[in-house]
Design a protein that fits this description.
The complex is a heterodimer of chains A (393) and B (80). Chain A is of the alpha/beta class. In chain A, 41% of the residues lie in helices and 17% in strands. The longest helix of chain A has 20 residues. The mean pLDDT of chain A is 96. Classes of the chains: A alpha/beta (393), B mainly alpha (80).
Chain lengths: 393, 80
């Protein structure tokens, strides 16, 4: 036995893929032609798996803001938010996020992972209880494990199961944090947040919602599933990321609880890492403003989501349960999924290959995400690529 | 409250359809290495036990559970 033995299954899969000549994990984007097209692993493709929901990565205002920040503030902060790494831009972005979400407080983190992991690991510790949706993202699981609270899962998107678990807690509900996501990253399904909030009202506890895949997509102002469901008052903490609809990298948490400003200095993933670079903060602020100024981006995103969903459904593929900017095609057999992923790339469509345990079941997924920047013709070409690959069998 | 033997009987009942064919279940059966349960199947087993005994089983106990005996003992401790 050696320390390396446990990595053998990964080594085996890598060898298998190498033999097939396929590189789905860590595919190399050699050149970006626009926010929706690139050269990946030598193939010119439409990007249909980048989470670039609003297509803002090449928006001139965002580019200009980032360039100006580099000229004025340099390439990096070289320090923690708690030491030298809080620049005026970080504070301004926190204020703008708080205003956007209509909440009193906001924290900016260096990544979305640091935000969810940090909040999950810090809010509930030994003796406390976390009740989370079974299909929660890895960053949530990592955080709550680190925190040391008792971790109880409820069945995915099942408020009745959540009800049972909160009932069983009795007095421990006082020390309980409930964690769900707005839109789930793999299948694109939405949490039934009105029902979940009703269960929380019935028993108590605090509720944290990860809106990483729903920011800018749902609700009158684009604040996510909580706004769309009309239950923002029941949500104690909203966390999310800048790396999807805002086209940069970073994360946030917003809340009306005044304690957030104290909690900030207990979050290790906030303290013991360098703060986001000035250019990242600058482009994120520009993107946050554009997202609010251009609600038409959301309309285009949903039109594209419907077009892709309907196109893939018409091919008879097993498509995820509801229309969403994430459209996942289930392929039961892992090798078939690998083969399809590879041939889709050859036919001009880059999608994400997801295999267990990253997928929520034993099946593999070809996960697509659409962008407001896709043209209807590009969506049709993605569908055509699937049709071609399906026809070749 | 159920005792160790009742937990054991239920674990055996739930495990039957999960376990690899031809393997005889006993208290020392190892859930993953011997019975071949995947991580998803372990979670399914936990959910069925939770429903049956109307209890919640924290994930924190899982790293210490290797055998059917370990699981029955852990449930007894959780629900004394």
């Amino acid at each position: 036995m050696s320390l390396f033995d446990k990595f053998q299954p990964i080594v085996d899969i890598q060898a298998e893929l190498q033999q097939l000549g396929v590189m789905p994990f860590g595919a190399v984007t050699e050149k970006l032609l626009s926010s929706t097209e690139a050269i990946v692993n030598g193939h010119q493709v439409i990007l249909a798996g980048t989470n670039n929901y609003l297509g803002l990565t090449f928006e001139p205002e965002c580019l200009e803001a980032a360039k100006q920040a580099i000229d004025e503030l340099g390439t990096g902060t070289t320090g923690s938010r708690m030491a030298n790494g809080t620049f005026a831009g970080h504070v301004a972005l926190e204020n703008e996020l708080a205003a956007f979400f209509d909440r009193r407080h906001a924290i900016v983190f260096s990544t979305g992972y640091a935000a969810t992991m940090g909040m999950g690991s810090t809010l509930a510790g030994p003796g406390d209880v976390i009740v989370l949706d079974a299909d929660s993202h890895a960053s949530i699981y990592d955080g709550v494990r680190l925190g040391g609270a008792d971790i109880i899962r409820f069945r995915h998107n099942d408020p009745a199961d959540l009800d049972k678990r909160l009932r069983r807690l009795g007095d421990r509900i006082e020390n309980t944090l409930i964690i769900v996501e707005g839109i789930y990253s793999m299948m694109g399904d939405q949490a039934p947040l009105a029902e979940i909030a009703a269960v929380k009202r019935k028993y108590g506890g605090l509720l944290l919602v990860d809106e990483a895949h729903s920011l800018g997509m749902l609700g009158e102002h684009g604040r996510g599933v909580a706004e769309a469901a009309g239950v923002e008052d029941d949500v104690d903490f909203v966390v999310g990321t800048f790396s999807k609809s805002l086209g940069a990298i970073g994360g946030y948490c917003v809340s009306n609880h005044d304690q957030l400003n104290a909690i900030r200095f207990a979050i290790r993933s906030y303290i013991f890492t360098a703060s986001p670079s000035p250019s990242v903060i600058a482009s994120t602020r520009a993107a946050l403003r554009l997202m609010q100024e251009r609600p038409q981006l959301r309309d285009r995103l949903w039109a594209n989501a419907h077009r892709l969903y309907n196109g893939l459904t018409a091919l008879g593929l097993q498509v995820s349960p509801e229309v969403s900017p994430v459209v996942a095609v289930t392929i039961k057999d892992r090798n078939q999924a690998i083969d399809w992923w590879n041939r889709l790339l050859q036919h001009g469509a880059y999608v994400n290959l997801v295999m267990p345990p990253a997928s929520p079941s034993d099946d593999s997924l070809l996960r697509c995400s659409v962008s407001a920047a896709h043209s209807p013709e590009q969506i049709d070409r993605i569908v055509e690529a699937f049709a071609t690959v399906q026809g070749q069998k | 409250m159920p005792d160790y033997n009742e937990y054991l009987a239920n674990i055996f009942a739930i495990l039957k359809p999960f376990a690899k064919q031809g393997i005889l279940l006993n208290e020392e059966s190892e859930l993953v290495t011997e019975l071949g349960l995947t991580s998803l199947q372990v979670m399914e087993l936990i959910e069925q036990l939770e429903d049956h005994f109307d209890m919640s089983i924290p994930l924190n106990i899982l790293p210490d559970i290797r055998t059917v005996h370990d699981l029955a003992l852990a449930l007894e401790k959780l629900n004394p």
